[in-house]
Amino acid sequence: MRRLRDMLLASTLAGGLGLGAVPSAPAQELAFSQVERGRYLATAADCMACHTNIEEDGEAYAGGRGLETPFGVIYSANLTPDETTGIGRWSRDEFYRALNEGVGRDGEHLYPAMPYTHFTLISRADADAIYDYLFTLEPVRNERPENELPFPLTLRQTLAGWKMLFFEQREFAVDPDRPQEWNRGRYLVDALAHCGACHTGKNVLGADKDDEYLRGGTLENWFAPNIRGGVNGGIADWEVEDIVRFLRDGRARHTAPMQRMGEVVGLSTQHLAEEDLRAMAVYLKSLDDRPREAPEAPDQARLEIGAAIYFDNCAACHAADRAGVPYIFAPLGSSNKVAAEDPSTAIRIILGGARAEATRAAPSQLAMPPFAWKLSDRQVADLLTYLRHAGERKAGPVSASQVEDMRRYLEEK
Amino acid sequence: MTKQRPRVDVVLIGFGWTGAMYAEKLTAAGLEVLALERGPWRDTHSDFATTFAQDELRYYWRHAMFQEASQETLTFRNNSAQTALPMRRWGSFLPGNGVGGAGVHWNGQTYRFLPSDFVARSHNEERYGPLPPDMTVQDYGVTYDELEPHFDHFDKICGIGGQAGNLRGEILPGGNPFEGPRSDHYPTPPMQMTFSQDRFGEAARQLGLSPFPVPSANMSRAYVNPLGMQLAPCTYCGYCEKYGCGNYSKASPQTTILPALMQRRNFSLRTNSEVLSVEKTADGSRASGVTYVDTSGEVVFQPAEIVVLCAYPLQNTRLLLLSNIGTPYDPRSGEGVVGKNYCYQVMSSVTVFFEEEHTNGFVGAGALGMAVDDYNGDNFDHSGLGFIGGGYIACNTTNARPIESHPVPEGVPNWGSRWKRAVRENFLKTADVGVHGASMAHRGNHLDLDPTYTDARGRPLLRMTYDFTLNDRRLTAHLTPVAEEIARGMGGREIKVNARRGSYDTMPYQTTHNTGGTIMGTDPATSVVNRYCQSWDLPNLFVSGAGLFPQNAGYNPTATVAALAYWSAEAIVSRYLPDPGPLVRT
Amino acid sequence: MTSFTRRQAVRLLLLAGTALAAPRLMAREYGQGEGTPWAPMSGDVPHHGTGEERFLGPAEHAAVAAICARLIPSDEDGAGAAEADVVTFIDRQLAGFYGRGQNWYMKGPFGEGTSTQGYQSEHPPAMLYRLALAELDAYCRAEHGAPFADLGADDQDAILAGLEGEEIEFDRVSAKTFFDLVLENAIEGFFADPIYGGNRDMVGWRYVGFPGTRYDYRDFINHNGAAIVLEPVGLSGRPGWSGP
After folding, report:
1. Which of residues 170-209 of B touch C (CB under 8 A)?
2. Mutate to test the interface with C, among B362, B450, B457 (most CBs of C within 10 A)
3. Do A26 and A134 fall into the same domain?
4. N or C: chain B end with fewer CB closer than 10 Å?
5. CATH code that applies to domain B3-75+93-576
6. Least CA distance to C45: which residue of chain A?
7. Average pLDDT over every residue of A313-319
8. Same domain, A60 and A137
């Protein structure tokens, strides 16, 4: 972790993003700026998060982190230029092909845990810059563990079929009718930051559903919320400035990034240029969503119990009127997590607790304590049913069995 | 066989408030700092979350976060003629333990000492003539004006709420007109007062006194400090002193410094590691580091360029004595310095019982109060009174935790139906007017090593020899009636005076404001450290904490402890590092 | 449903025994820029004294219950130690670290001590109870022909007053120290959180009007002397958290 942070501390803005315009130029006189640009792009793509074994204090970019997928555990590759266990023998073309086509050095198909469905949009120039940066890293010898997948997913050929169905090699298309800022935001969101990898709903085979684009997705038992703007999207009531603050400082009026999104902010977005964060925000705000259907009305008795549990347990931080404390404790009346159609994240946070990511701007590590020991499944369900009904955007009741499933998952974890 | 660890620039012994302050300042200056804390790691979510922090039995009565007496206690006697016996369980004071130390479980009352408190001997002798020979009161060697920027910094680190009374010499309405000049306003407004404070304020004004809001480290609103740390608004839950704050609304090392510090690569902290002694170089001219033992039983030597004592005052004194640093104080000859001028405070109070009105003490906070300072320090003429010093008189509503706080009127028995009924009738209808009296140093009150009793590792315990002095008794006899008069004006049915009489008793809780033992001063013959809190004996050894106070003032000590720590840390950076020798030449 | 269900208790023990609980007691190094530790589902939740451990024998149990019932009587004004089940609280406390005097300083030599030197018994609380209760029993049988629990209230009160006033003394332990300790523990058991076995159904809190473990009174700061009516709540909740 020490090395990982060293690198982050040194990371700086490396100029504007190439939207296909900057030629690949690894010439000696460009080495510095090229490496800096590569570092910035790798940060924007948050390569580090998956390619560092964060749980076990692994070396930065040396891979080996187990990624939970619905199909099994996939271990990330070593991106340091080690000749035997890393990418030391990869050529620039091979590296680009991995991002652009999802194909490994030996021609094998890569598992889509590597988000090449997004990275295919990355320009050749940007890919080259990332490559040049990665080759400045200290080579780390780190053998990747065997993936834990059931047959036939162990066979890479299986992936050919998957890719045929769900993967399209394509280039990022600039929309000439939109401002430069919007296009830049879209490139960041879709290509580098690959937001949809979590925030877009998946089909049973783990591929993005087109009509669920950034409408929220379930991953590793988290529900990554709807991040569309407009008037009906999950962040419709966030201003551009709120989104920038969230990504830059890790604190917004509405909430703070925790756990998985905390990593994204901690390792990636807080290090990005404000103009890039603003571009992402502008793009997200431009995406409207279809109106939500009115949920079924919950039982009055459950609402009363839920309100009692709320007042006795939650008001200490979130205040009796659920208004929270801006930038410190999330207001729950307008919470995107509470009102999400899939309540998984809210259930999980109540049971297991959560902690706001410490950032350079906001080092406080404000944490919500776990309630698993204190509240029964039924009580958590009643509490959430109340909150989802009382909020500005209504969402349907939560059942005790939903809470029970999450509790079992967390206890076994 | 003692293991040796790689040398560090600075080793801090103890990691509470002052440890966090030195660590923050010295790492910011680029030094590599290691803190050794003998207790465990502590943090809000793991140790005092809102889901279980409000547990009176566990935290107060079973001492969940205090030093374990079984690990180390001290022995006590009222005077040298008695045999000291161990304090087998804590009573009158509650030393902290673990990361954050007592800073985790303080109330948050954040007064500054008065300018005259720092020059107590010269000021009082100039005004009233020579002090009695046994009254070993001394000047600090540092003045309020020198410390003011550091007081101000601590206010901003904590987000202290209050009303300035003296802003750069201008007396402002609603504040404490007696306070030393402040360079800036309080960073946050005062807390919102409740019924009891309103009544106290009216009664005090009727008597021509000047009530002001108690400076509070419980947040009156959300606040972000200069390190970017976020504090939330206080919810008046009534669990401050003896408890950790579950919702980030009380300034503590955890909420104001630690997370920012823990981001720095030149800082590290070792928990459950108890320092056994400060080691000296072969020629005895400098500290070479410290020896500590951890829970694995391994004894380790940690070399360091600079050593700072950041433990509780009683432990700092004991560690110097066990390490043979400085001359132990001898009360017979008055010679020697380590253990000298141990002081406490003389606390009394008056309870007001209301008939109709509810005071609802559970709507409380550690520093929710109104105070008057008219009888503190030398804010009033002591001519002919036979004592110096004073204390604030305050009405704080800190809690209605029922095991601890169930006052009953005069004449009610201690148990049985009459007692029970009186508890019920008065539980929500009492207010307290407290007197926080200073304690002046006396030749006989001191700390040394006990000849008989040893700690869990077989090393001598500290021995405390202490009783209230004539000055203390006269002080409390003069001030308690003032509190009584205010209390009578608050409109209750009856009052009860809880006077401080007789000898100091170690059992009833009074206050965790033990001071002295490692006092600062201007002369190596009468003090342990110089005006920069630097040891007169070993120039690379610094001492922090209330042990520095040559005598105790009529205030809670934390802000003054903090100002001294920041002052000393600044001296290390700006004066000691360029020229690592004695900062005061003798 | 204010007491812990079995399931909750088991889960609570699991939590207390895992995650942060064990490593936190070992020496450990933090820092070097790595932030502060955190893990989901962790926290040092209440543990000591929340289980089913027992120390007192049947006769001791009856005596302690009877003493507490006189110290905090059940009467027309409201519930007392009996309804609060204070004896169960004391029993559990004596069976645990408190009863063993585990975090008290219990090394000798032991001396009488002055009134300002605090607890000086060589016995930790549990053993002090055991020895004192035996002597109390002997005293009651000798003077009144029956164990304490079987005596009338007036006799019991007189005996307790005798202990408090040092008119009745024991041979092996200080009767006064014992009395002071029982009174302290009885008040603890009447007012401590119900998870520790006493204050059953929060009767102690209800009796005096204490709202319990609430953590937010911001809406009540301006009470201006008016009563605040709030249902008490304990660490494990209150009836209003569950349906009928």
Report:
1. 192, 194-195, 198
2. B362
3. yes
4. N
5. 3.50.50.60
6. A373
7. 97
8. yes
| Residues A117 and A10 both lie in one domain | yes
B50 touches chain A (CB under 8 A): yes
Residue B513 appears among annotated catalytic residues: yes
Indicate whether A292 belongs to any domain: no
Whether A152 is covered by a domain: the verdict is no
β B391-396/B430-437 pair status: antiparallel
> Is A260 a member of any domain?
yes
Query: Tokens 């035996």 sit at which residue?
Result: C134
Q: Report yes or no: C21 at the B interface, CB cutoff 8 Å.
A: no
How far apart (Å, rounded) are the C-alpha atoms in residues A287 and B39? Answer: 53
Q: Point out the residue among B45, B233, B265 whose CB comes nearest to the CB of A2.
A: B265
- Same domain? For A242 and A321 the reply is no
Residue B108 has pLDDT above 90, yes or no: yes
Which pLDDT tens digit goes with each residue over A241-273? 999 999 999 999 999 999 899 999 999 999 999
**Do residues A349 and A258 share a domain?**
no
- Mutation choice for C interface testing from B46, B56, B418, B466 by most C CBs within 10 A: B46
A357 exposed, middle or buried (CB, 10 Å; 0-12, 13-18, 19+)? buried
Of A166, A195, A218, the last residue of a domain is: A166
Q: How many CB atoms lie within 10 A of CB C34?
A: 17
Q: What's the pLDDT score for residue A5?
A: 38
Which chains share 3+ C-beta pairs under 8 angstroms with B?
A: A, C
Residues from chain B that touch A364, judged by Cβ atoms under 8 A, are 228-230, 248, 255, 259
Q: Does the beta carbon of C220 lie under 8 angstroms from any beta carbon of chain B?
A: yes
- Give the nearest partner residue to C218 out of B236, B267, B294, using CB atoms: B236
3-class SS of residue C90 = helix
* Residue A400 burial (10 A CB sphere; 0-12, 13-18, 19+): middle
Domain that holds residue A202: 180-285
What is the distance between the alpha carbons of residues C164 and C158, in angstroms, rounded to a whole number? Answer: 10
pLDDT tens-digit profile of A114-152?
A: 999 999 999 999 999 999 999 999 999 999 898 888 877
- A195 plus A120 within the same structural domain: no
Residues A107 and A140 in one domain: yes
Q: pLDDT per residue over B420-453, tens digit each? A: 999 999 999 999 999 999 999 999 999 999 999 9
Q: In which element (H, E) is residue A317 found?
A: helix A315-318
The tens digit of pLDDT for each residue in C85-115 reads 999 999 999 999 999 999 999 999 999 899 9
Determine, yes or no, domain membership for A293. Answer: no
Nearest to B458 by CA among B322, B300, B298, B325: B322
**In Å, what is the CA distance from B554 to each residue of A153, B155, B374?**
75, 19, 12
- Number of domains into which chain A is organized: 3
